[in-house]
Amino acid sequence: MKNTIVSIITVSCLSLLCLMFCGCGTFGGTKVVSVPMSNMPRGPFAQIHTGTVTLAANATKLDAVGVYPVGEFSKKDLRNIDKSLSKAFCTIQQSQEVDSARNLTIHVMIRRYLVAASNNDGGTLACVSWCAVNQDDQIVYDEQFYASYSSHFSTLGRSKNKVNLAIVSRIAEVSAYLASPNPRKHSIKYPENAYATISPAIEDLPEVLYSCLYANVGGSIISASAGGTTEWEWAAQNNRVNWAAYLKANK
Predict the structure, then answer these.
(1) Least buried of 24, 117, 174, 183, by fewest C-beta within 10 Å?
(2) For residue 15, what are the domain limits?
(3) 198/142 Cα distance (integer angstroms)
(4) How many domains does the chain have?
(5) What is the pLDDT along the chain (251 residues), one digit of tens a residue?
(6) CB of 171 closer than 8 Å to CB of 124
(7) CA dist 175 to 92, 128, 189, Å?
(8) pTM to 2 decimal places
């Protein structure tokens, strides 16, 4: 009877260990982020609107190492980026006079969004393309950039929010200059966690992820571990989006 009780306790502890190991509280929920719009140019600004905010085909990927496979970029995450951009554009226009004769429509495409997580490390990497179209339906600006965040002992949601903030900040800050009476011709500094190319974006991301958990069961130390390599280069996009063709096809 005593051995049976010990066996039941051991099995229960092992089951709990497995649940803890696979369910390390990182669910990856995101929120609407606020961009601190400082050092903006003087107005009057063109009206800025959000156009299409889309997700390219096969654009998302999740590498879950020893944790529940949750947190992949979702339509809800995309909506939060859309709402964050609209919020940023409102902030820009509330701070300065608006020129109603001019307007900019901002179109955004998330081309890649890779999330990787273990129970103690992880990271998020995105490739984003966007363009600005004026009141004459002319594309006045387009670019592609990357955003990343390494989340050592941090939640998956925080990692994704950091990347989303970098995405929204870059687009909003450049849009503010494009909407100004005399847009700057020189490059605008990238915000924190945003990069022009993939090389610096993946520099601090963990290449190999491990999940480890230990438990004392009846005086015995029981451990569980898992490891995996994340191919961050999967997010690289060498060909640029043909925005003229895309917008014509999606009118």
Answers:
(1) 183
(2) 2-249
(3) 17
(4) 1
(5) 333 333 333 333 433 334 333 333 347 788 999 988 777 777 788 999 999 999 999 999 998 776 777 889 999 999 999 999 999 999 888 877 888 899 999 999 999 999 988 776 789 999 999 999 999 999 999 999 999 999 876 788 899 999 999 999 999 999 999 998 877 655 689 999 999 999 999 999 988 775 565 555 565 555 445 556 689 999 999 999 999 999 999 88
(6) no
(7) 9, 15, 13
(8) 0.83
